[in-house]
Write a structure and sequence with these properties.
Number of domains: 1
CATH topology: Alpha-Beta Plaits
Shape: globular
Strand order of the largest sheet: 2-3-1-4
Distance between the termini: 15 Å
Largest sheet: 4 strands, antiparallel
Radius of gyration: 10 Å
Number of strands: 4
Number of helices: 2
CATH architecture: 2-Layer Sandwich
Strand content: 25-35%
């Protein structure tokens, strides 16, 4: 499965890396691509292991705001 998150609070490449690391640390996430300029993260994941809400929580725990894009 794939989800897109709107991520706010990223202001630099370090922020982008922090979000990337947080996403990749979620069990079941296969790949994550974080776009600093658009404030988005596209995440491929195994739906048997995680879901968009859990993925967003990882970003929030890293200090940023995240919600699933409509």
């Amino acid at each position: 499965m794939r989800t897109t998150l709107n991520v706010t609070g990223m202001t630099c490449s370090h922020c982008q890396h922090s979000v990337q690391t947080a996403l990749e640390g979620v069990d079941g996430v296969r790949a994550a691509r974080v776009d600093l300029q658009q404030g988005r993260a596209v995440v491929d994941y195994d739906e048997a292991k995680t879901n968009p809400d859990e993925i967003a929580v990882a970003v929030v725990d890293a200090g940023y705001q995240a919600e699933e894009a409509a």
